[in-house]
Specification:
- This protein is 28% helix and 27% strand.
- By secondary structure, it is an alpha/beta fold.
Length: 182
């Protein structure tokens, strides 16, 4: 995903069932520390044209998709992106997205959306923090199923989305950076 705006747009537009998300920046392996030295290395941070921030984490081990990790990532993004004097109403909307190899919730759904609610009112809390778990085992005939197939497919020739196949082919076969990068 490093600097691959086209692939990141594909992921986000697929996850959100849209076609108008425009990504303006993609950064991979960005590190962040809290005040006490606890750190995280974000797999992918993307910012769209509406200044929404997306943190995509690819998890092959279930423990890497711990709910408290989502909370920690969100807090680190807040601490890095919110400047002194920023009004609360201007805080960015943040999406932490875990793409998991396994269906960690076991309900065989393509995605799981986690939102904070006011329990007594049964209403959204609307703090601008969102978490999504994408089930990497899902292989439905819809775009998410095809995308998860491609995401975990080793052969670019068998992929459905050219945006991912092109990058996978480069990383596997191009000696001018692809193979050495892998």
């Amino acid at each position: 995903m490093d600097d691959n705006i086209e692939a990141m747009q594909l992921l986000l537009n697929t996850f959100f069932h849209r076609d108008d998300i425009i990504v303006k920046e993609v950064v991979t392996q960005k590190s962040a520390n809290n005040l006490y030295g606890r750190s995280a290395r974000f797999d992918v941070i993307a910012v769209d044209s509406n200044d929404k921030i997306y943190n995509c984490e690819i998890q092959l081990a279930d423990e890497g998709a711990n709910p408290k990790r989502a909370r920690f990532n969100n807090s680190l993004i807040d601490s890095r992106e919110i400047n002194k004097g920023t009004k609360y109403k201007d805080f960015p909307e943040i999406w932490v997205i875990f793409i998991t190899e396994n269906d960690i919730f076991g309900a065989q759904l393509p995605m799981y959306h986690v939102e904070c609610n006011v329990i007594e009112l049964n209403k959204p809390f609307e703090d601008g923090a969102h978490i999504i778990y994408v089930n990497g085992e899902y292989r439905g005939d819809d775009d998410i199923g095809l995308l998860m197939h491609d995401f975990f497919c080793a052969d670019p020739a068998k992929m459905h989305f050219p945006e991912l196949a092109k990058r996978a082919d480069f990383l596997k076969h191009n000696n001018k950076g692809g193979k050495s990068h892998m």
